[in-house]
Amino acid sequence: MTKQCFGNAKVPLSPAVRAGDFVFISGQVPVDQSGAIVPGGIKAETEQVMKNIEAALALAGCSLSDVVKTTVWLKHAEDFADFNAAYAPFFPQDPPARTTAESRLMIDIRVEIEAIAYKPQS
Questions:
Q1: Where are the beta strands (DSSP E) in the chain?
Q2: Number of independent structural domains in the chain
Q3: Which terminus of the chain, N or C, has less C-beta within 10 A?
């Protein structure tokens, strides 16, 4: 199996890596294009993270409809309901499998999400 890395990150990781028919998206955080953490709490952060996941998927020729699994880390369990409200519109039908856990995060944010997509190569 060959591995192909996509994108350039400011930290030692690839935003997206294709391994065969699977695409692995590194944990995305709620930063905008300037690198600033978006204000507005869990809903705004979740929306930005999902936009960042969409951008990373696009590097590998994928979209959210190709996502089969996500892993979510929330800083506060009490954000779970508001997180779900912001996350759900990105997967209006047949949402991917998901794991969600409360966790201390590496920077002062409320959510981080990684994704796995499946898209057979042409």
A1: 3-6, 16-19, 22-28, 67-74, 97-102, 111-118
A2: 1
A3: C
pLDDT at 1: 56
pTM beyond 0.90: the answer is yes
How far apart CA 38 and CA 115 sit, in angstroms, is: 20
At 82, which CATH number? 3.30.1330.40
Q: In whole angstroms, give the CA distance from residue 84 to residue 122.
A: 34
37 CB burial (10 A radius; 0-12, 13-18, 19+): middle
Instruction: Report the alpha-carbon angle 98-86-96, nearest 5.
Output: 25
Six token digits for residue 120 = 């057979």
